[in-house]
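Lecture 7 notes: from sequence to structure.

We start with a single chain of 65 residues. Read the sequence below before looking at the structure.
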Amino acid sequence: MTSPSAPQWFKSSYSGGSGTECVECARVGGGALIRDSKWTGGPEIRVQSGPWRLFLGALTQRPAR
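Now the structure, written as tokens:
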């Protein structure tokens, strides 16, 4: 049996490079993983693809004027 490949973690392009980033994400089958970038060995939150898409869509919407 083959072991699954390790998640490919990434930070937002808006994250600073000063070590103060808060979160990292990784795409996985059926959704995404989220973790604290300063505690990479800590817990991970798994979000299914539907709620993840809604979350990302809400981030990219501009407020109504």
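The longest strand covers residues 23-28. Keep this in mind for problem set 3.
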